[in-house]
Design a protein that fits this description.
By secondary structure, the chain is α/β, with parallel strands linked by helices. It has 12 helices and 12 strands. It has helices at 11-19, 22-32, 48-68, 86-98, 112-125, 155-169, 186-199, 217-230, 242-254, 275-282, 294-310, 332-342; strands at 36-42, 71-77, 103-106, 128-132, 148-151, 173-180, 204-212, 236-239, 267-272, 288-291, 318-320, 324-326. The strands form 2 sheets. It has a 6-stranded parallel beta sheet, with helices on both faces. Strand 1 (36-42), helix 3 and strand 2 form a beta-alpha-beta unit. Helix 8 (217-230) crosses helix 9 (242-254).
């Protein structure tokens, strides 16, 4: 898979960079002339998911370094307190702008309007902002002050497809427990809307209880334990992200309940696309997950930035990666793709 590409950059620039060729590569190498591109990569919280995106970006950076002679400076930063630490995320971006970074790759839980002001100021100073993994479907394009956002639709490509999978596996009838992120999260709203829209197509499907799983495994475990104690007749647990779903799976085992075997037991479904989640699927400890494309997200961030910042192409403001539900029947390919990405031939930054 060393030649893997995501095709995310817009127009002929993305196609040419993916396909390559000696004349094209030589022409780009002449344009680059050994240039060093400075990128700041910031996440709302340090996690396996964001590490996968970073590793995929490094794969593409290593490819471009070899083909085009471009050099890279990569710096990772995350708020030290909470994923909702707005002030810290603003200061991280502003610091990189002051230091004349070429681009910032950012996923943040900070207020939309606040960040658009920060992004506008960054653009004026010459730093391009490229968001990723954001619920950008909530906002009109004319309000966006980013160069591009790489991600997926949390409603249609995550919550809805997870709901359809659960409903179809249960034959259209079942009681479901749902673990969401903290109240007010735009991700929770969009994924929850998609889940409920899918269940509305099946009158026998019912969400009997919900809880805050905090987007982390241990809190998902505790929340699922409490819900399973209060609700005995449960057919499935939906975790808005994969860590919460894995925590729910642990709670099922702790309670002495049966994991789904394709016919009966409790279904657990998450969303992210983690190596640990894929391995849990193979082991029968997680029924399914929505692979929301962390590998393609990392690849397309670099492709899109390079096409825009270096080659001078206009790029689409919203770049959606493909997603799919993964279970035991189809886990091998996405797991291999993830393992390829996390084993990047070169690491960057600090």
């Amino acid at each position: 898979m060393s030649g893997a590409t995501s095709g995310g950059a817009s127009g002929s620039a993305g196609a040419a960079a993916a396909a390559g060729g000696s004349d094209y590569d030589a022409a780009v190498r002449k344009l680059v002339e050994g240039r060093t591109i400075q990128i700041g990569y910031t996440v709302p919280v340090l996690s396996e998911y964001f590490n996968e995106i970073q590793s995929a970006a490094w794969q593409k950076m290593a490819e471009y370094e070899e083909r085009f002679g471009v050099k890279w400076t990569w710096e990772l930063a995350a708020p030290s307190a909470s994923y909702k630490s707005v002030e810290q995320h603003v200061s991280i971006v502003q610091s990189w702008v002051t230091r004349k970074f070429d681009a910032v790759f950012i996923c943040t839980s900070a207020n939309f309007a606040t960040m658009q002001t920060v992004y506008e100021e960054a653009a004026a100073a010459g730093t391009g902002i490229y968001e990723y993994n954001m619920p950008v479907e909530l906002h009109p394009e004319d309000q966006l002050r980013t160069v591009a956002t790489v991600g997926y639709n949390n409603d249609t490509q995550s919550g809805y497809v997870a709901g359809k999978y659960i409903a179809e596996a249960l034959g259209g009838t079942g009681n479901v427990l749902a673990l969401f992120g903290p109240s007010g999260s735009e991700y929770s709203k969009m994924r929850g809307d998609g889940l409920r829209r899918a269940f509305a197509e099946y009158p026998g499907m019912k969400i009997v209880a919900e809880a805050d799983g905090g987007y982390v495994r241990d809190k998902g475990f505790t929340a699922a334990q409490d819900l399973l104690t209060a609700h005995k007749n449960v057919s499935a647990i939906y975790g808005e992200n994969e860590d919460m779903a894995l925590g729910a799976s642990q709670a099922i085992d702790q309670a002495g309940l049966k994991q789904w075997d394709g016919k009966d037991g409790i279904i657990t479904v998450g969303a992210d696309g983690l190596v640990s989640g894929m391995n849990a699927i193979k082991e029968g400890k997680l029924t399914a997950t929505v692979d929301v494309g962390p590998v393609d997200t990392g690849l397309r961030l670099v492709e899109t930035m390079f096409a825009n910042k270096v080659l001078g192409y206009a790029v689409a403001p919203k770049v959606y990666v493909p997603t799919k539900v993964v279970d035991k029947t189809n886990v091998d390919i996405p797991l291999a793709y993830l393992n390829w990405a996390v084993n990047a031939p070169k690491t960057y930054g600090k």
